[in-house]
Amino acid sequence: FSADGSRLTIPFGAGTTAGPTGTGDPDGVEILDVRNDETLATLRADEVGSVAFSPDGSLLAGGQLDGDVLLWATDGWGRVGAPLASRGGEFPSLAFSPDGATLATSHGDGAVALWDVESQEAVGPPLPGLPDARTTARFTPDGDRLFAVSETGRAIRWEVDPEVWLQQACALAGGG
Asked: Taking the model in full, what pTM does it have?
C-alpha cells in the first residue's frame, strides 16, 4: 500500500504464467486505486516479487528474482534510472527510510544494502546480516535505526545516523 492507503501494488507472473487477467500475461506489477477498484497502471517487468512505495508516494520500487531493484516514478509510471545492482538470486525485501532518501534491500544471504535514492548509488558496502537466513530490513518510524529480522526470529539493529557511528568508533578507539 502507498503511505496514504489509496494505492495497492500487486506483483504478478513471477515464476508463473498467469498475469492479472489469468491469461498468461507477461510478468509485471499492477497498481490499483483502492477507493474505486480502478487499475491505475500495469508495469511490465520480469519476475518482480516484492514492491514498496516511497513515503511520499513519488516512487515505486520493485525487487526482481535476480536481486535487481527497479524504480518507477508514480507521476507517469516511467522507469527511473538503471536497475540497482544485483546481489543475486532472490527477491530482495525493500524498505524506504521515513524521509525517502534511502532504500534498504535485504537478501537471502542476510546482507542489507543501502541505496541513496537520488543518486541510485550504494551507500557503502552491504551491512552484514545473519548468515543463511532470509532477512527483512525495516527502518524505525523516526529513521534513526534499521532492523534486519531473519526468518529464524533473530534480529540485528544498526544505527543509521553517521554521527552515531563516529561516536561509537571514537569510544572504541579511546578517543574523543
From this structure: 0.84
